[in-house]
Amino acid sequence: MVEILDSTLREGEQTPYVNFLVDEKLEIARKLDHIGVDMIEAGDPSVSPKVFQAVKEIASLGLKAEIVAHSLATRSGIAKAKECGVGRVVVFYPTSKIHLEAKMNKGEDEAIEYVCEHIRYARELGLKVRYTPEDASRTDFEFLVRVCNRAIEAGADRISFADTLGILQPHEMYERVKALRERLLPCKIDLHCHNDYGLALANALAGLRAGADCIHTTVNGMGERTGIPDLSETVLALHQFMGVNKYELRHLTELSSYVERISGFFIAPNKPVTGMNAFSHKSGVHTNGVLKDPRTYENFDPAILGRERRIVIDKYTGKRAVAMRLSEYGVEVSPEELEAIVEEIKRFGDEHKILHDADIVELAERVTGRMIDVFPRDLNAIVMIAVESHVYTGAVVRRLKNLKQVANVYEITGEYDISAYVKVSNVSDLNNFIEELRSMPGVKLTDTRIVLKKHAENGW
Ligand code: HCA
Ligand code: CU
């Protein structure tokens, strides 16, 4: 049965400019466990006192997943892993010529003895051991087989085939893993594939097909440089391509958002599975097809991931999608009116970057000559305000705080000085509010963004 080891807390925290707090790590671990990953690599306890604390606390949560500590092949590192109360330690030590010579200053035979000695030490402490030959993909294959088999004899029951620089292609990964499987003593094989050429997940899947047991992932594909396979993409691929049903698909997006929020590491809109655009359709040809039968442009129902299809309306969109969006707002129009609205949308789209729903409704109002009061519900907006250079920003902030429409005010860096989160009941209230703001002493310029969708602030 295929396994996933998630390393968001170890490899993921190696992402440039990312650090998690201990509590955030505990929350990530719980959420990973909820999704059902088989192993959680909780960190290398030797890195810092807080990493040590996080690994220790995660090990005591009583999660279903096996908790793994990472460690260099040092006695003190392995002892620290033991102190954390984990059941398994990773002993990692490089095997490629360049690493042995440049970093370790060790010959091959010396390296084997060193690795085995540390694995035996971990076994004496009662720990299960995964041995990671770092930079395995650039290691002489015969040496790799030798060092891994000696590691297994010394007590390792897992070998992580690490493509540390992400240099392999899927067909090479397949061949390499197949040969390893044939040549290694009984053990489980993990695949640790870096994404430097964008091939990490493809390589991992190829390795699985060749007989490996486990894929390493991180949430949002974080990690050193370009990271490793994204957890959500991996779970989806295993589900769709290999019929693996043991992971909870519906919580992946929320975990991704949670990690985005606490890490400040934002995913691209076009990222598969969790990206904002992953289930959005735009051109007339596509939206028309999807509205007739989603299977025309969707390989699976986004609902399996707890996500919804979105139809984006702009100058590329045809009548069918526009009529659907209007009818979502309870607006019915004649075929002639619809045609005219679509024409207006095309004109609007040539002049503007984004068409908001409020713009569509306004265009429909203009074309039909009927008042369409469909935004009576709470309307939220973010208003950016530039202050005259001779005015003290704090003075404008004080005035803003007195306005009932203003929920929050922030002094910010950049082109604007203030950002205000504003709550009004409709578009015309928003207009009035902005007029009032513009006439306020000290306000030079405003820029208003209507909030289309507010995402959950916290976890599930
Ligand atoms: C690193 C180590 C590692 C280890 C992988 C593993 C790699 O270079 O930081 O233990 O499976 O990529 O080789 O992340
Ligand atoms: Cu790595």
Automatic annotation (TrEMBL):
PROSITE patterns: AIPM_HOMOCIT_SYNTH_1 (PS00815), AIPM_HOMOCIT_SYNTH_2 (PS00816), PYR_CT (PS50991). Keywords: Transferase. The keyword Repeat does not apply. It comes from the Bacteria. The keyword Transferase applies. Residues 2-253 form the Pyruvate carboxyltransferase domain. GO terms for molecular function: acyltransferase activity, acyl groups converted into alkyl on transfer. GO terms for biological process: carboxylic acid metabolic process. InterPro entries: AIPM/Hcit_synth_CS, Aldolase_TIM, Dimeric_a/b-barrel, LeuA/HCS_post-cat, PYR_CT, Tscrpt_reg_AsnC/Lrp_C. Transmembrane segments: none annotated. Belongs to the alpha-IPM synthase/homocitrate synthase family. This is 2-isopropylmalate synthase. It comes from Anaerolinea thermolimosa.
